[in-house]
Amino acid sequence: MDNRIIARILAEIGEYLEMAGENFKPRAYEKAAGSVANLDEEAGSIYRRGGIKALEEIPGVGESIAEKIEELIKTGKLKYYEKLKKAAPVNLTELSRIEGLGPKKIKKLYEELGVKSVSDLERAAKSGRIRTVPGFGEKSEEDILKGIEFLKKSKGRFILGFIMPEVRKIEEELKKLSLASRLEVAGSVRRMKETIGDIDILASVKGGKDFDRRAKKMMSAFTSMDEVEHIYAEGPTRASVRLNFGLDADLRVIPESSYGAALLYFTGSKDHNIALRNIAIKKGWKLNEYGLFKGQKIIAGKTEEDIYSALGLQFIPPEMRENTGEIELAAEEEIPKLVGYDDLRGDLQIQTDWTDGSSGIADYAEEAMGKGLEYIAITDHTKHLAMTGGLDEKRLANQGKEIDKINSRIRKAGKRFRVLKGTEVDILKDGSLDLKDEALVKLDIVGAAIHSYFNLSEDEQTRRLIRAMENKNVHIIFHPTGRIINRREPIKLNIDEVVRMAKKTGTVLEVDAYPDRLDLKDEFLRKCVEAGVKISINSDSHEVSQLKYLYLGIGQARRGWAKKSDVINAWPLDKTLSFLKR
DNA sequence: GCCGTTTTCGGCCCGACTGTTTTCAGTCG
Q: CA quadruple A120, A126, A127, A131: dihedral positive or negative?
C-alpha cells in the first residue's frame, strides 16, 4: 500500500473525527497524513526495516497512529476507519469540495436529510429541504446550489503557466487604480506551485485614521471589476470572489506597517506559517498577519526579512516555504542561493517545423537572442514518432547543414550566439534508441525521451531508462517521468535508482518547463541536487513564443532547492559542452 | 492523538466573514 493511500485514509479519519465533534484528534490525524504524504521512503519499507518503532519516528505519528499504519500495511484494511465510515457513510471528500460546507454541516445534513453525496445534496436543495434544517436558511440553500454548479464546471486546480496571463491581468488592473501603496499576488502563485486553486492578492494602504475609508475604496474597486462573476464575501478588509474564467480570488487590504507580516502570511504555505508561529510561541511571542508581537508591542512586521530575522532565521525564498526542512536550514544559516530567474544562458530542448514544431530554426535563434540567451539546441523528434514527422539519420544530417548556415550568418552579423545541433531521440520499449550511435555522436546535444509504452511496470520502466542513460552518447533525459499534469500519470519509476544511475553515468536530468509538464518535479529535483546530479531547464518549445515558459522551469528548480551550479544551461556554453563530453 | 527550552500532563495557529442567530458556530485560508 503506497504512502498516498495511507495518507488519504488518515486524512479521511481526521474529517470523520471532526464530524464527530472531536477537538484535537482531527488535527493529529491531518498532521500525520501530511507527514506520510511527504515521506521519502514507502511506509511499508520503513516498517519492514524497523517495525512499529520506526513508524513512530515519523513526525506526528505516535503509538496509536503507528499501529493503524501497521494494520494498513499488513492487512490492506483498517477496522477503525471502516467503523467510522459505517457510522456516517457519506462521501466527505466530494461534499467538502463545496464552498462553505465543512464536516459539521455535512453531519447535520446527513442526520436530518440523509445526504450522502453531492447528488443527494442537489436533490435536497432543489426540493427546498435544506432550509428546514436548523442552522440553515434560504441563503444557505441558494449557496449550496451555486456551489454545486461551480463544482460541475470547474476541473480542479489550474495549471500555473496557462492561467498566469489572466492572473497578471487582474494584478495590473488593480495596480492601475493607484489605490494601494503596494499590491502583490501571494499564495501558491508566489510559491510557483505547478497548479493553483485560487489567487491571493494583497494590498496595503496608508494606516492612520483614514485607513478604513481607503481600504473600503480598494475593496469595492475589487469586487466591481468586470471579471467578477460572483461575490462570496465582502468585508472591510477582506473580499472573496469568483472570476469569470473560473478561478476564485481573495483580496486582503492591510496597513503599510503590516505589509511584510501579511505577505508572509498570505504566501504560505499553511504548514510553513504554522511552523513559524510555533517558533514565535516558544519565544513567548505571537505571529499573525499584522506582525510579530511581544504582548502588545510589535517586534517586526514591515518586511518579511524583519520577521524571519527576529525569529532567528535567514530569509527563506517563497518557493521553498513548504515546511519540508527549509526552516531548519534557515536556523543554521544554510539556505542555498537558488538559481535565479535571470540565470539561464541557453535552452536545450526545442522542436521546429522540421517535425511537430511550427517555427523555423532561424526564428527561434532570433527570439532567443531577443530574450538575452546565448545558445539554443535544436532537438527535433526522431523517426519512430511518425506522427510528428520524426527525423531519420539522413534528414538529421541535412538539418545540421541548415544549422551551420544559420550559425555562420549569425557570426557574420557580429552576434555572439550559437545554435547547437541536437535531437530528442526516442527511447524504444527495450531502452535502445531510435537513431544509430554514428548519427548521435556527431551532435552537440543528445536528449533522449520516452514517448510510448507508458504502462510498463516500475521495474521494466526503470531498466528501460537506465539502459538509455548507459548509452555514452546520451547527455540528457528529457521529461523523465512523462507526466502531463491533469492528463497523464507519470510512468512508474524507481526514482532513487534513476538518480543513482544518472550520477554514475554522468547523465543530466531535465526540468521540462512546459506548463503542464514541469518534469522532473520539485521533490525529485531535490533528490538530484542532494545526489549531485546535474539538471537542465528547457522550454520544450514547439513555437517561438513558448520560450517564455522557461521561468516556470526555473520556479520548479527553485522549489527543488537547485543552485545555479546545479543547472548546466545556467553555465557559459564552453563549460556546458565540456561537461557533456564525459 | 501527539508532543516536550511548557517535557509524561496540558496544551494544541490565528483572525475575518457569513448566516442564522440574538451572541456565535462553522468555514476558510
A: positive
Q: Which nucleotide across the nucleic acid strands is nearest to A19, CA versus C1'?
A: B26
State mean pLDDT over A28-41: 84
CA distance to A215, A343, A512, A559, A576, per residue, from A338 (Å): 36, 10, 18, 9, 19
Q: Distance in angstroms, CA of A140 to C1' of B19?
A: 7
State which residues between 29 and 88 of chain A bring their CB within 7 Å of strand B.
29, 31-32, 56, 59-66
Distance CA A422, CA A582 (A): 17
A200 touches strand B (CB under 7 A): yes
Amino acid in position A480: P
Residue with CA nearest C1' of nucleotide B20 = A135
- Distance measured from the CA of protein residue A66 to the C1' of nucleotide B26, in angstroms: 31
How far is it, in rounded angstroms, from Cα A475 to Cα A469? Answer: 8
- Count: domains in chain A: 4
pLDDT digit string (tens) for A188-217? 999 999 999 889 999 999 877 888 888 999
pLDDT band of residue A467 (cuts 50, 70, 90) is very high
CATH code, domain with A402: 3.20.20.140
- Name the nucleotide with the smallest C1'–CA separation from A28: B1
- For the four alpha carbons of A106, A110, A112 and A118, in that order, the dihedral sign comes to positive
The reply to whether the CB atom of residue A254 sits less than 7 A from any atom in nucleic acid chain B is no
Nucleotides of B under 7 A from a protein CB: 1-3, 5-6, 11-21, 25-29
Q: Which residue is nearest to nucleotide B13 (CA to C1')?
A: A274
**CATH number for the domain that contains residue A327:** 3.30.210.10
Q: What is the pLDDT of residues A327-345, one digit of tens each?
A: 999 999 999 999 999 999 9
Looking at residue A563, what DSSP letter applies? B
What global pTM score does this model have? 0.82
A143 Cβ nearer than 7 Å to chain B strand: yes
| Span A344-386, pLDDT tens digits | 999 999 999 999 888 899 999 999 999 999 999 999 999 888 7
User: Are A512 and A364 found together in one domain?
Assistant: yes
| Same structural domain, A147 and A161 | no
Q: Is residue A511 within 8 Å of A518, Cβ to Cβ?
A: yes
Residue A450 lies in a domain: yes
Give just the sign of the alpha carbon dihedral A38, A44, A46, A51.
positive
CA of A27 to C1' of B3 (A): 13
